[in-house]
Amino acid sequence: MIKKTLFFILLLYLPNTTTAQCWAKVAAGSAHTLAIKTDGTLWAWGYNAYGQLGIGNLINKNIPTQVGTDTDWKDVDASLNSMAQKTDGTLWTWGRNQYGELGNGTVNGTATDSGAPVTIPTLVNTDTDWVSFTSATYRCFAIKSNGTLWGWGKNNNSLGTNDNVSHSAPVQIGTATDWTFVDANQNYALALKSNHTLWGWGVNQNGGLSIGAAQTSTLVPTQTGNNTADWDKIAVDIVSRSKMIKVNGTAWAMGYGENGDMGNGTNNSVNNTPTQVDSDTDWRSIASGYTTLAIKNDNSLWAWGNNSSGQIGNGTTVDSNVPIQVSAGNSWSIIACGSHTLAIDSTNSLYVSGYNNYGQLGDGTTTNRITRILIDSGCNLQSKTFNEINKLELAPNPATKIAILQYNLSNNTLLNITITNNLGQGLFSEKINGTAGANSVTLNVENYAAGIYYVTLTASNQKETIKLIKQ
Question: What is the pLDDT of residues 431-443, one digit of tens each?
Fold first, then answer.
């Protein structure tokens, strides 16, 4: 066995690679997170009082926790409940089912009693032609491949079915066959048609629908967005904020704006008409929660709105009523917002910030984060150099002075050992020669501050990463 001791010097550098590279999809509920890894497994963490984590119990989790063992998950969405799609096109739901919002034909509660939660993913029906879906508080919506729109759950003027009848199974909304995308919250829904027109229904909370007077209801899908045919993307928050992108790349907002959520320099509580955020024409994607995240065509990440718990992730708790760039680098690809914010970069690494009272950030704590931090995924990438994926071991862990890294190699090879912190910043990099068979390296971490670090071993352009806890 080859043994080597490395004394780490805390020098900040930009690493060649980033740890925790395996997240493909992510969704933010009001206080929980759902995510899919690149291997098709489903993970959840955060608030779980209604079984919305899908792990078979009602225990909150502050680290990513696998949901079942299936490896064919394709997409996810979350609100108070959870919703996901498999690669075969089927839809699955779990969590609270007080009004039939899970869509499986059952109702678990009454108007005054939420009833027994559904704690594992449950099939909505056997249909396999769903193409777009959204989980809203107390209800869900989905679109089929034939362009038809469907909804189920609580109907307080909000299902779009021209009545107030709740449904525990999918019911078609109107007869149109040109719907392409839908998003919704506890008050209203917005949807796009193939001709780029914008439609809405439900309660016009704070002007978030821009249909009629604020707080009034619309029972059927009604065209909104100034009745123009140039809308490309939509994002609806939990209560009353709507964000849109036009085909020309401009960003727009309507609804609640007291914390700068319109992004146009104002702080008005009611905004009942679509309002342009700024003059930029390079917005590509957008997500709306208590805060707004958006990505530009150059893959840079921007944010504005409520920052009371650090959701913006810029190291402060100061709201911003204009877009500001956050998290340096132009490699961002997927974003989601709830009471917290989530962002995946081009290496499939997940970064989070904001409210964390139930562990929804997944960093092992319930401490709010005002700076975006890297979330440990437990991802060990396959490598032909390593004999087996999970052979990399680190002990003792947690460590106070030293930790011994053990691993097997199938052949002699040059290795690179790096350590990064929870912000993804590289703290150390060292090249060593590895020999076939069992190897060990003693890491001297005595001078490290208490916290979470990531030790990465790279060989032949492949790598394995393990979390190190320093006490």
Answer: 888 887 888 889 9
Distance CA 399, CA 200 (A): 55
CB-CB neighbours of 222 under 10 Å: 13
Amino acid making up residue 139: R
Looking at residue 262, the DSSP 8-state letter turns out to be T
Q: Are strands 2-7 and 437-444 parallel, antiparallel or unpaired?
A: parallel
Q: What is the pLDDT of residue 462?
A: 63
- Alpha-carbon span 82 to 73, nearest angstrom: 13
Question: Scanning the structure block, which residue is given the tokens 């199938």?
Answer: 410
How is residue 328 annotated by DSSP? S
Each residue's pLDDT tens digit, 88-114: 999 999 999 999 999 999 999 877 777
What structural domains does the chain harbor?
A: 2-15+380-470 (2.60.40.10), 23-374 (2.130.10.30)
Q: What are phi and psi of 38, to 5 degrees?
A: -65, -15
What is each CA distance from 284 to 232, 312, 385, in whole angstroms?
Answer: 9, 18, 39
Cis peptide before 396 (omega within 30 of 0): yes
Q: Is the CB of residue 187 less than 8 Å from the CB of residue 158?
A: yes
CA distance 320 to 304: 5
**Structure pTM?**
0.80
DSSP string, 147-180: S-EEEEE--SS-SSSSS---EEEEEE-SS---EE
User: For 253, what's the count of Cα atoms within 13 Å in the CB-facing half-sphere?
Assistant: 36
